[in-house]
Amino acid sequence: MLTPFRINTRTHSNVRREEVARCSASCVDRSDRSLGAVRPVAAGRIVTKPTNVSSGRPVGAGARRVVLGTATAETRWLDAVRYTVAAVVTVLIVTVIVVAIKVVLRPESLRLSVVGGFVSSTPRPGATAAVELNVKLQAENPSGRARIYFLNITAYLFDNKTLAASTADPEQDCIINFGRPDFAVAQQMAVFFVMSVLGENETTIMDPNYFGMLYTKRRTISDVVMRVDGRLVTEVRSGANTTSHLATYYCWPLVVGEDEARSGMDVPCTENQSDG
Prior knowledge:
Oligomer: single chain
Shape: elongated
Number of strands: 11
Largest sheet: 9 strands, mixed
Keywords: Membrane, Transmembrane, Transmembrane helix
Helix content: 25-40%
Radius of gyration: 51 Å
Distance between the termini: 146 Å
Transmembrane segments: 83-105
Low-confidence stretches: 1-12, 27-48, 61-68
Protein name: Late embryogenesis abundant protein LEA-2 subgroup domain-containing protein
C-alpha cells in the first residue's frame, strides 16, 4: 500500500520571504530596545525615530528648541535696538523743532553804531571853562515784528589803558560819561540821536588830564572806547508780548577831537547781553 505523501509546495522564493520577515522582526526588536519606538511608513517600510537612551527623549528635539529660543532672543534684542534708535531720533527732531521755533519767534536786537566813528570836542571859554562833547549814534531795529525800547541809557568814554568791559565802577574809571533820554525804534526802522555833555575841569565830572588835552592843548585822542549801558525792551503786537534784558554795547575804536579829526567811517557797536 502506497503511503500518501504531502507535496511541499514551498518554493525557494517563499522561503526567502519568510527569512526576510524573521530578520525584520528581529531587527525591529533590537531597534526598539536600543533606540526607541518604531514608526511604520508606507509600502511596509519600517523607520525608527532615534531616542536618547538615558532621557527617553527623541534626539534633536532639544536642539530644535534651543535654536528656536536663540532666534526669539535675537528678535527681541533687535526690537529693543529699533525702539531705542526711534526714541533718540524723535527726541532730536523735537529739539531741533523747538530751537527753530525759538529762533523764529525771538525778535532781533537793537543795532548801534557811531556815525563817523567820531566824538567831537569843542572848547567853551567863559567864566567856567568847559569842553563840549557830542557823539552821534544810529539805532536800527532789524526786526519785522517787534518794537524796541532803549531805556536808562548811560554812555562812558574810556582810553585804551582801561578795559571798559572789566571795570566794576565805570563812572569812576571813565574819562567822562553821557546821559540820554529813553527812545523807541519801530519795526525795520532806524533813528539817529546825539548824546552831549559839558566837561569841566572837575574830577567828579571829567578826568583832568583829558580835559587839559582837549581844552587847553586841543589835541586829538585816538583809540577811545565808548561803552553804552541800558535796558532793551522788545514789544510784540502792541504789548501783548514783551521781553526785557540789560544790554551793554562797546563801540571801538573812536576818535575824540575837533572836527578836522573826523574819520568819516561809521563804527559798529558790539552788544553784550545780560540777565536782569
